[in-house]
Amino acid sequence: MAYFPMFVDMTERECLIVGGGKVAYRKVIVMLDFGAKVTVVAEDICDELRKLTIDDIASEDKTGSYTANIENNQTDSDAADRITFIKRKFERKDCDGMEMVIAATDDNALNHEIAEYCKAKDIMVNAVDQKADCSFIFPSYIKEKNLVAAFSSGGNSPVLTQYLKGKEQEVLTPFLGELNEYMGQIREKVIAQYDTEAERKRVFKEILCAAIDNGRIPEI
């Protein structure tokens, strides 16, 4: 089955990740990279997740929650305000109020239980490596600022999507990410200056081609 490609604004949206291992860590980094507010529920967390916390267990509050320290990770500067760890077993109520849930434990039965509960509540859910339990799947993707390319094999072949990602990285460079930011900055000005869609398209294409040919971003 082919999955419908849909880009969703996750800025400040609530996302629950159940599990504290390296797979959970990778999902945390992805969701923070796209601006989500992340809650992690796990009895224990891996070293990579621990590096996101402030003084680890010493900083726990009375509820068993502790917040993130962005010093040792590659997320943006406001990540510390967007991630919370809760150190205990998963409870179904953890899903309530969430817009997205990721079941990333090493217990397939628990992941299935989480997925079934979320589906009954109409919450988007991904159970890692359990395709039948997912209402959405994670693509392989490349992100340069706001420019994103993503690939999905419908869950059939992650190796193939990683191959495609590697090929696309040769094209989708940091320069194109910067160029995309520039194009966004001038968009309203061009729209206001030219009356027809054909004229605007011509101007945007000329600017794009000139920037790529010259290898530099034009001055605004």
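Above is the first protein from milestone M3; the second protein from the same milestone is given next.
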Amino acid sequence: MSPSPPNPPRRERASSPGRPAATGGPSGSSRSGSASSGSGSSGSSRPGTGSGSDGFTVSRNARYALYVLLFVLGALVGAAGALVQAAWLPAGLLLALLATAGLFYGGLRATGTQIGVAAAGGGWLLSVVLLSFGRPEGDGVFGGGVGELLFLFGGMGVAVMCATLSRLPRPPR
């Protein structure tokens, strides 16, 4: 039997902006740097906590409350956008899409994760879909024109763009 080859040297994985490089140890889970260094690493020593987008530790209940708030805000922006885009067609559509983009991007920046965009987008989509259903009497918010379709597909496109944005590096402190 021949001796086994020596273990290859450890390599460091490349770090993303604002995060320390992880060493490729035996388990691959050790990090160089501590969670309290303000580097924005999401590895916290206490269960139920995580770092926000600016490095502050946020409790699990506060994050869930923020997600619920973003869901409700998404529903309100969706309902307001549905009314505004139909009232003032060219400018109202632009205003509704800008408000939608502001909410989605704000959800991304406030939570630091794509879950913030998903929470706001879920509320927005739920309200827009519910408002698009007509009643048996024929009443409905959406009339089925081009503006309504642009609002629906434009809002979904903005949600996807905000969810797939890369995180910007934090300025040094």
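Note on the second protein: The radius of gyration is 23 Å.
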